[in-house]
Amino acid sequence: MSDRPAKRSLTLRGHRTSVSLEEDFWQEFRAIARREGKPVNALAVEIDAERGLETGLASAIRLYVLRDLKGRSGG
């Protein structure tokens, strides 16, 4: 598995955007969306709405995944 970020397209509020994440983050992000019963795009919209202007969407997704993993592991 490559550690290089892979670019994927998402639709946020009707607009296409690209996000580059490492494959491990994409897999966890998709797993979180499935667990929450949401489409990946819907979860991305929620994350996008909560992030600050100084934080890019890819970074916000990585942080969301990290917080989710830490929360589930009790860390």
Structure described in brief:
With 75 residues, the protein is of the alpha+beta class.
Topology:
Blueprint: E1 6-12, E2 15-21, H1 23-36, H2 40-50, H3 57-73
Antiparallel strand pairs: 1-2
Helix pairs in contact: 1-3
Task: Describe the structure in your own words.
The protein has 75 residues and is an alpha+beta fold. The protein has one domain (6-73): Orthogonal Bundle (Ribbon-helix-helix fold). The chain is 56% helix and 19% strand. The protein has 3 helices and 2 strands; from the N terminus they run E-E-H-H-H. A two-stranded antiparallel ribbon has the order 1-2. Strand 1 (6-12) and strand 2 form a beta hairpin. It is globular. The model has no long low-confidence stretch (mean pLDDT 93).
Number of helices: 3
Q: Report mean pLDDT, rounded to a whole number.
A: 93
β-strand amount: 15-25%
Q: Over the alpha carbons, how many angstroms does the gyration radius reach?
A: 12 Å
